[in-house]
Specification:
Beta-Lactamase, Arc Repressor Mutant, subunit A, 3 domains, 48% helix
């Protein structure tokens, strides 16, 4: 199987997993093979509670995975810098910090090095002010460091992962069967439209019918689906026209289409191809080539950590030390945990004191608490 065929099969699997989450167990090994990585993970990071959730993983040694979650994950040096990235950013460890700093960390010395892990690449799939979700892959020494080919590979697949994850959140079910598809779709809070290759509406759920009736965001003229935003409408028409050609034809097009309105509200549309794999069975009774999901756009505001960085002009290293001091304690304990010298910790801490106008660790605790909010 050549690389193009491998990519097409992977994209199809990703979209099938949007309807059946159990299929992620097959998609992640495919992802690892496509990227020539040692592991593949779908996970999220909660900024407020500093908590990591690895929803789906592949390639980890079970004992080391347990060790990661119980001992090292909260002090993962990548998380502090990755929290400043935007949706769609693709980055390796070297883009977040010097490799020498990562290789000196406790996590690497006691967890990564014994397993032969030397690098990692990650793509942010979704980000809110309190959390982010990402696709993460570790590189083993036998795989080599992250290079341009791997970056390009992640760039090709992350939009499909993002779309599948977002649609999977909208369709909160184990599996969609054709016989119950209409009832299932009518129960969704998001507007959903099944369309054919010529943009004709084959089926709309109840929220979709309400949206069509209002004619503020979308409309149906002679049965043809369209949006009130001309630019977005042209993009949607192009995507639906090529969706009939299968997963590889869709490529990386149309991951998120912003639908502008005459008012202040904005909506986003996500398109799920329905012409191959498990999705073909789900739409068998409708002769549709794609499902279009429309929901109100959520603002991607700054995270608490990003707000602190901007407010005090902190570097990633200073942010990491500041949060570690708040969570762990004194300079010696922080140095041991982060795998750096106590002198380095004290230098960063002094810079933090100067930038925040404080002189005590207790003051830093108050600052972090104020940015995290009352629910943190």
């Amino acid at each position: 199987m050549n690389e193009k065929e491998q990519l097409s099969e992977l994209i199809g699997g990703i979209y099938d997993a949007a309807l059946n989450p159990d299929l992620w167990d097959d998609v992640l090994p495919q992802t690892s093979r496509f990227l020539n990585s040692a592991t593949a993970t779908l996970g999220s990071f909660d900024f407020q509670h500093h908590r990591v959730n690895l929803s789906k993983t592949w390639g980890y040694d079970p004992e080391y995975l347990e060790l990661l979650m119980s001992r090292y994950i909260k002090n993962n040096p990548m998380e502090f810098a990755a929290a400043l990235k935007k949706t769609g950013d693709v980055y390796a460890i070297g883009d977040l910090m010097p490799y020498s700093e990562f290789y000196a960390s406790q996590m690497y010395l006691e967890w990564g090095k014994p397993q032969g892990y030397i690098d990692a690449i990650q793509a942010t799939l979704e980000r809110t002010p309190t959390a982010y979700a990402a696709l993460h892959c570790m590189r083993h020494e036998s795989n080599g460091m992250v290079d341009n080919r791997i970056r390009q590979g992640v760039g090709l697949i992350w939009p499909h992962f993002r779309r599948a994850v977002l649609i999977g959140k909208v369709i909160d079910l184990h599996k969609v069967e054709a016989a119950t598809l209409a009832d299932t779709l009518d129960g969704l809070s998001a507007a959903m439209f099944l369309v054919d290759g010529k943009s004709r509406i084959v089926h709309a759920n109840k929220p979709g019918l309400r949206m069509l009736h209002e004619r503020r965001i979308v409309r149906s003229d002679d049965g043809r689906f369209s949006t009130t935003d001309p630019t977005a409408d042209q993009s949607l028409r192009e995507i639906m026209a090529i969706a009939d050609g299968g997963d590889s034809a869709v490529g990386t097009r149309g991951i998120t289409i912003l639908l502008g309105t005459a008012g202040a509200d904005h909506y986003v549309a996500h398109v799920l191809p329905l012409t191959s794999g498990a999705r073909r069975k789900a739409a068998a009774n409708y002769s549709s080539v794609a499902a279009v999901f429309i929901r109100k756009a959520a603002l991607e505001g700054p995270t608490p950590t990003e707000a602190m960085v901007k407010a005090y002009r902190l570097t990633p290293a200073e942010l990491r030390v500041m949060l570690a001091v708040v969570q762990i304690g004194g300079a010696s304990e922080v140095a041991s945990t982060l795998g750096v010298s106590e002198a380095t910790v004290k230098t960063h801490l002094q810079h933090v004191f100067e930038k925040t106008g404080t002189a005590r660790q207790a003051d830093l605790v108050k600052i972090v608490a104020s940015f995290m909010g009352p629910l943190g």
